[in-house]
Design goal:
Citrate Synthase, domain 1, Cytochrome p450-Terp, domain 2, three-stranded antiparallel beta sheet, 17 helices, binds D-malate
Length: about 400
Amino acid sequence: MSDSEEQPTLFEIKDSNLDTGLRGIPVGTCRTSFVSPTKGVHYVGYPVSDLADMSPEDIVFLLFEKRLPNRQESQDLAKEIAARAEEMPAGALRILESMTPGSGHAMDWLSVGIQALGIAETTGDVRADSLNLIARMPELMATIFRLRGGRGLPKSGSEPQRGMVENFVHLLGVEGDEAEKMIRVLRTFLVLHMDHGGGNLSTFSGKCVASGRATLYASMSSAMNALSGPLHGRANQSCLEFVQRIGTDDPAKIEEFVRSELAAKRPIYGFGHAVLRAEDPRAAVQIDLGEEICPDDENYKIVKALREVAPKVLSENPKISNPHANVDVASGALLHAVGFHKPEYYTTFFGWARVIGISAQIIDERNARSGRGVPIYRPKYIGVNQPIQRLE
Ligand code: NMX
Ligand code: MLT
């Protein structure tokens, strides 16, 4: 595909565009990122693979300010986030403590946790609320992991000045070499997952809700519910479960398995995309990271073989627009290799990252039209019994 084919196109809506999940229909502008079908996501113009080793706090700055920070700005934002993380509201913790360990999905807990924080400390200023929520995420995540796992509130006190990821790992009670590997994988994971254009389901849902002037927390909770579906964020959980069911890195056996899943009308998780038409650069970054962190891990070896085999099988079906690996193909294997052994928590990491991109996009939409904000979302649906002028 040439670069000119990748330019956004404006077009007339035809009958064939209806009931396609708004696929490809331009609805607005996005200042944080764009997705090239062949080269993947770019944050404020930077290809995401160029940013993968940077600190998550610096990428918060990039998505909020639309430029990378200098050293002073980087330190200032890290300090601001740490200061905003002080004293988790007791009311929010009590709501989480009242939930039964092991109940529901971890994403339900994340959605409730964000809503509970909103009950405790919404200011109504979307920028302040966004930064407060971003600052609270490490402790909220660790609290969910521990309470849902029946281990009570984190035992170590929160130390937000360590950095967001470092504090989360500390709150889980992990130290030493194990902590170092977790931190390495999670920092990259967060940077890669923060944003993916304006139209992905969770971001779009969050912005829709925010357009009615709901609070940042209520909008974000809705976004997390959108992310929880297996075709969207929960594909990272499903993909590792899928890899574990395969159980071998023998290409012939993997091919047989993929074919049998397709025959049973089940998705091949970690492959395909609504916008991308080539392998996702975020998949490549994570597979390269696996080479460094866990080259001999069984799941990782299966993912590498699957990455070669699945596209060949999927491309036999002309209906499938993109047979290549997406962001979810390897993340579960990496998380598992560094000690996160329960796949049902993986989507909460995706959610943690997206809180940052979605917040930045909600702020941009509230500032649009000289501060009047984007109007309340209200697309048109055509009633099936309505006399209409056909579109094509
Ligand atoms: N496995 C099986 N069938 C597929 C796959 C796949 N990986 N990808 C596409 N298809 C099917 C799709 O279900 C659709 O079938 P139907 O016409 O019966 O509805 C047909 O192929 C055409 O789909 P596309 O236009 O290629 O893709 P679409 O934009 O509708 O869907 C996904 C995109 C991502 C939902 C789809 O590729 C999929 O279900 N992938 C597996 C789940 C996954 O890994 N999701 C993660 C996406 C990234 N993220 O994190 O959000
Ligand atoms: C992604 O990160 O790939 C997504 O949020 C899915 C999308 O962009 O539609």
